[in-house]
Amino acid sequence: MEVRFDHIGYAVADIREYLDEFFVPLFAPVDVSPLVEDPLQQVRIAFATLAGGERIELIEPTDESSPVSKYLGDRRGGLYHLCYSTDSLEEAVEEFRAKRCMVFSGPTPAAAFGGRRIVFLFTPQRDIIELVERDSDG
Amino acid sequence: MEVRFDHIGYAVADIREYLDEFFVPLFAPVDVSPLVEDPLQQVRIAFATLAGGERIELIEPTDESSPVSKYLGDRRGGLYHLCYSTDSLEEAVEEFRAKRCMVFSGPTPAAAFGGRRIVFLFTPQRDIIELVERDSDG
Fold first, then answer.
1. What is the CATH number of the domain that holds A113?
2. A100, CA 20 to 30 Å: which among A20, A33, B64, B124?
3. Could you give the number of structural domains in chain B?
4. pLDDT band for position A65 (50/70/90)?
5. Nearest chain A CA: its distance from B115 CA (Å)
6. DSSP-derived 3-state class of residue B85
7. Residues B7-54 pLDDT 10s
8. Residues of chain A neighbouring B60 (CB-CB closer than 8 A)
9. Contact A113, A132 (CB under 8 A)
10. Inside any domain, residue B79
């Protein structure tokens, strides 16, 4: 199993407002993707790419029952997860479980990744890690 | 002002244990720096570099009065901050303040960055951002 860093997930109440009022003026992303709606996760997602190639995933809940809504609570945003990609989701999940991580969502296909499957885990440190399977071309 | 993404800050109760038991087996960093002690911040710091070049800063409080101790609370770790570098710390702080960020520490020289100055801010989303000034050679 080889995991690679993929992106930083950041929860916001309103992607457009966050981009316009805060993120774009301060961090000057070189690209912002179109918004993608993920009905399974009940979120709306956009990727902002920084000058060094780092990708920040902005995640906005579309419904109060979305897990991201619970995370946001009365906050307007927040660091939500680190995402790593893997060539074998099953193998990676097994290895993370062996290190006492707990799957709390998925595997489920993700609209933001063209249907590639994702899994969310809690680490023993109680952080959220997302794993996404890589395209077969790596 | 140009800010560049620098690293992800991750608080842990014990850097060595976290590396040995969790981070190295799962994420296979290509490099782990020696530990540096920062008496001003009352922390011990190591940088783990991932295969893609991403740097994870591991931060361990050396004293209960360290701000990181308060952050850790009864958790054993956690995503702590995103760090960006800037060529002008004063200018960057001014721009972040204009976007309603609040400085809560610094500017102060940081042992982990060879004495370059750092500032910690709360964003309006109540996340922590660190700014570090770049070397004069960029």
1. 3.10.180.10
2. B64
3. 1
4. confident
5. 24
6. strand
7. 999 999 999 999 999 999 999 999 999 999 998 889 999 999 999 999
8. none
9. yes
10. yes
